[in-house]
């Protein structure tokens, strides 16, 4: 039987088994809370309980490979989520569902957890330009999904592109402000204004 232990957020994770997966998850959580510069192998090992000997077995490139894999995994998860929302819902419903996700994330983490992709994008990372390149690709995927949803609602391509940029930028900024202020109000304000803008061009 696999031993399980409780995380700080009340969920459980295996104590043994897939050390690589646990380390990627731990790196994602560290990026969300501390950013790339403060995400170290030691921090990830401490938070996950993964054996030190597994680091270079699973990540021959060390810290850089671990963080790169974490960015890829986090970006893939969020991109899939956004693509499903924009494919299955009208713009206002998709907006509300996405806002609900971030409302829960911020409140449940006591405003410690932000967007791991944004955390990487805003740091210089001169020694690891691959982090920034990965973030650019992920943001582009989000932008494309949002723009395509708006085009399906008969919004002109050029404006759909601008509105997609506005939506991504507004959410990322609101999340950062909410964390800094320890208050959900910036997110609520942004969502209210985006509802007005999106509702005017693509009514449900």
Would you kindly provide a written description of the structure presented here, covering whatever features stand out?
This protein is mainly alpha-helical and 204 residues long. The radius of gyration is 18 Å and the shape is elongated. A hairpin with a 5-residue loop joins strand 1 (4-6) and strand 2 (12-14). The termini are far apart. The protein contains 9 helices and 2 strands. The longest helix is centred in the middle third of the chain and has 27 residues, at 62-88. It has a two-stranded antiparallel sheet with strand order 1-2.
Supply Rg.
Answer: 18 Å
Shape: elongated
- The total strand number stands at 2
Q: Beta-sheet strand percentage?
A: under 5%
Oligomer: single chain
SS-based class: mainly alpha
Write the layout of secondary structure elements.
Elements: E1 4-6, E2 12-14, H1 19-34, H2 41-48, H3 55-58, H4 62-88, H5 91-108, H6 116-121, H7 129-152, H8 157-181, H9 185-201
Antiparallel strand pairs: 1-2
């Amino acid at each position: 039987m696999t031993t399980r232990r409780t995380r700080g957020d009340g969920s459980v994770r295996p104590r043994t088994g897939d050390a690589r997966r646990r380390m990627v998850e731990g790196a994602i959580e560290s990026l969300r809370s501390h950013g790339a510069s403060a995400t170290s192998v030691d921090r990830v090992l401490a938070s996950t309980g993964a054996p030190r000997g597994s680091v270079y077995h699973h990540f021959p490139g060390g810290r850089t490979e671990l963080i790169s894999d974490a960015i890829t995994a986090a970006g893939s998860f969020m991109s899939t989520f956004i693509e499903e929302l924009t494919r299955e819902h009208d713009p206002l419903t998709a907006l509300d569902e996405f806002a609900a996700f971030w409302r829960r994330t911020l409140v449940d983490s006591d405003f410690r957890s932000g967007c791991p992709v944004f955390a990487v994008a805003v740091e210089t990372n001169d020694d690891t330009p691959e982090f920034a390149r990965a973030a650019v690709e992920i943001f582009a995927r989000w932008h494309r999904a949002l723009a395509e949803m708006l085009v399906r609602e008969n919004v002109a391509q050029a404006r759909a592109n601008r509105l997609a940029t506005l939506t991504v930028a507004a959410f990322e900024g609101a999340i950062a402000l909410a964390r800094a202020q320890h208050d959900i109000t910036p997110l609520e304000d942004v969502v209210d204004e985006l509802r007005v803008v999106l509702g005017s061009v693509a009514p449900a």
